[in-house]
Amino acid sequence: MATFKFELVSPERILFSGDVVSVIIPSVEGEITVLAGHAPLVATLKAGIVFTQTDGSNGKEFFVNGGLVEVNHAATTILAEQANFLEDVDAAVLDKEILTAETKLAGTHDEDERKRLHDVLVQLREFKHVFESRKAA
């Protein structure tokens, strides 16, 4: 299968850089599956899981919360506001993110920022519910 270059970058580090067969990305518009030759696009990320499929392996999973994805003819790059390996995420990590978003929301007076933070809170709570259901299965 055809591969393409993929990078997942957080403010702290590069979590993944290499060739992949596919990447599934959680965007605010819905999940995006990127394969080699995908049309160029830029999208905003929501809280969720990025799935990568590498040639000949099971792939890797990452938790992202906010940021952007850029797809072009040569590569796909995620610049995440926050990203972790999925195995490093648990309910306590998600609770901390929810509390941080709630605190920021309570302290802002800018209407656009209030809407953005409200959306982030909804996404985090939804993801936590899905995450807990997945762990229970």
Keywords summarizing the entry:
137 residues, alpha+beta, five-stranded mixed sheet, five-stranded antiparallel sheet, 10 strands, 31% helix, globular
Outline the structure in words.
The protein is of the alpha+beta class and 137 residues long. The chain has helices at 91-107, 111-136, and strands at 4-9, 14-20, 22-27, 30-35, 41-44, 48-53, 60-64, 67-71, 75-80, 83-85. The radius of gyration is 15 Å and the shape is globular. Strand 6 (48-53) and strand 7 (60-64) form a beta hairpin. Helices cover 31% and strands 39% of the residues. Strands 2-1-9-8-5 form a 5-stranded mixed sheet, with no helix packed on it. The model has no long low-confidence stretch (mean pLDDT 91). The protein starts with a strand and ends with a helix.
